[in-house]
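Appendix C reproduces, verbatim, an entry submitted by the partner laboratory led by Prof. M.T., so that reviewers can inspect both the input and the predicted structure.
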Amino acid sequence: MIRSLQKFKLLAADFGGALLAWGSFFLLRKYLLSEINEGYRFTGDQLFTLTGSALMIAAFWVILYALIGEYRDIFRKSRVAEIIRLARISFLGAVVIFFALLLDDQGVSSYRLYYKTISAYFLLHFTITAIARTWAITSIQGLVRRRVISFNTLIVGASALARETYRELERTNRHLGLNIVGFAPVGDAVDPDLAVELPRRGSYERLPALIRALKIEQVVIALEPSEHQMIQRVLEQLEGTPARVSVLPDVYQILLGSVKVNHLFGTPLIEIKQDLLPVWQEVVKRVIDIVGSALFLLLAWPVYAFTAMMVRLSSPGPIFFAQERIGIHGQPFKIYKFRSMYVDAERLGPALSSKNDPRITPWGRFMRKVRLDELPQFWNVIKGDMSLVGPRPERQFFIDQIMQVAPHYRHLHRVRPGITSLGQVKYGYAETVDQMVQRLKYDILYIENMSLAMDFRVMLYTVKIIVEGRGK
């Protein structure tokens, strides 16, 4: 509850600052244009207009901040960094409001006044909001420093380095609010002083269970250079857990410039990226998914009707085929396709299709070449099971086999699976588990470079493949 109240405090500071800035700008503009003077009284309609416009403008700013991600991770904000970031956002928002509301202002008679108008509003909004936000962040930081708000933290490692990391975090990083509850060794050797100062919570191989049981919110990986080959295994254990992950860097990583320090006197840590997309891109991606799929279903109904008729004529059996696949966060869902195989094609058990697979009907072979069999999955996109672009979902039967060779496959479950993917356009369909593992590198490459621009590129490549008939 107290964390929710602090988020509301920051939101209220932004809303109040925007409200006050617009009201001040409105009155200043009228005064400079000699529309109000001593003894002037607002009418009821004018007050209603001012209040309504101020509320709408304040709501616009809060929505803008939310889309840019200002309300993510509010307990680790730096006041200086926030002021710099606020200046950029304030300028962007002021330009939008100027063109939307002030460009046709009848009271402005010259371009010089236009520049003064937008500059005055930008300065008013930035100054007032900066004061309000600084107050809110300072208040929140005070709660974190006093440990009113804290984050259960687990150190992975049990060497002298882990011991020194624990001591340094306790001594110089109170602003992070880390409540270090213990350590998880990666081997048999444990520093005796660390064992005295912190409880041993269990092996790193039990990290998912430890995170659930101890309600861990932050994991700090502190391994000696000789143990760095273990970092990948630790990260594989942490995949899919809600905990933030930081890695203590070595000198080589610091020299490469991959280490960022958010606070001047903080311990240098490499933050493992949790948010794959900015909030606004997440929202836009989902909007594109829903709107694009709905339009496609509406406009392409003749294609659906023709394909359904051909499936019915091609062989006995249902038109549609439903199969359980694994989606985001490892949740199962039913994926829909036009049936491209004969009925009971998997009576001997799950099997991947191949180039000359006798289970595929002649019409099904054509559908696969031009991806017609995937068309029903636009309904999966609207339901939220899938996205237009994302790694192709697999069955648990094959995921279990892939995980034995490539445990990092679970990385794909961080995002919604897609109708098309980078792996599919760059590698194609996989006929064996080994080929699935080879294709995996393209899907991980997509996830690590996710953006709307990447999605559009994948969709364009997909169209090219469909036109060329290179599917299988």
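Confidence is low (pLDDT under 50) at residues 251-256. Additional entries are available on request from the coordinating office.
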